[in-house]
Amino acid sequence: MKFHEAGKVSIFITLLSVVLLTLCYVLFLANLWWVSALFFTAMVVIAFMIVRFFRVPYRIINKVNDGVLAPADGTILAIGPAFEYEYFKDERLKISIFMSVHNVHVNSYPIDGDVEYSAYHPGKYVLAKLPKSSVDNEHTTIVVAKDERQQVLFRQIAGFVARRIICYPKKGDHVLQGDEVGMIKFGSRVDVFLPLDVQVAVHVGDKAVSKKTVLAYF
Hints:
Blueprint: E1 2-3, H1 8-29, H2 33-53, E2 55-56, E3 67-69, E4 74-84, E5 90-99, E6 106-108, E7 113-121, H3 133-136, E8 139-145, E9 151-158, E10 165-167, E11 174-175, E12 180-184, E13 188-194, E14 199-200, E15 207-208, E16 214-217
Antiparallel strand pairs: 1-2, 3-16, 4-5, 4-15, 5-13, 6-12, 7-8, 7-11, 8-9, 9-13, 10-12, 14-16
C-alpha cells in the first residue's frame, strides 16, 4: 500500500491541522471528559478518512486482450445506450461507475492503445449519481483506441464533494491496460462509452474494481 503523490500535501495539511486543533483544545477548551472523547474521536476519524482516501493499493492487472477493464472502483450505476455528444457523436453503450468516498479514487486505462483525444471541461458540481452530471459537471474525456474496432471513451466526472480532477494522458500517448490515468478527489463518477455490439459482462449494482473487473468484451 502506498499513497498517491497528489494527496501528500492534503495529508500533511490535514494531519497538521488535527495536531494544532488538538493542542488548542487541550490548552484552552478541555473540560468534560465526554466532550473531550467526542472531540478526539472526530479528529481521528477525519485524519483516517483523508489518509485512506489517497491510498493506492497494489494490484496485479487482469490483462484481457479483447476485454474492457473497469477504469475505476465503485458501483455500476447504469448500463444502456446513450448518445455520445463530444467525440464519436453517435449512439454508444454507456456504463456508469459511481465512486463513493470509501472507494479507491485512482483511475486506470481500460484497454491498450493510443490516446486519440483528451480534453478537460470546467463545469458544475451536482451529485455524481444524477444523469445530468455527465454533461454539466466538471469532467475530462479520454479516448483510447487499439484499432478501428476497439475504441473506448471514458469520462472522469467530478461530484458534489469532488473539486479536482487529475488527468495525465495527452493525445498521441501510447498507454497500457491497467496503467494509471489519474484520480478524482473526494467522490465522483466515471462513464465508459463502448460500441453497441460489445458483450457486457457486468450488471447494475455490481461492484467494479479498477484493473480487475471486466466490464465488456469486444
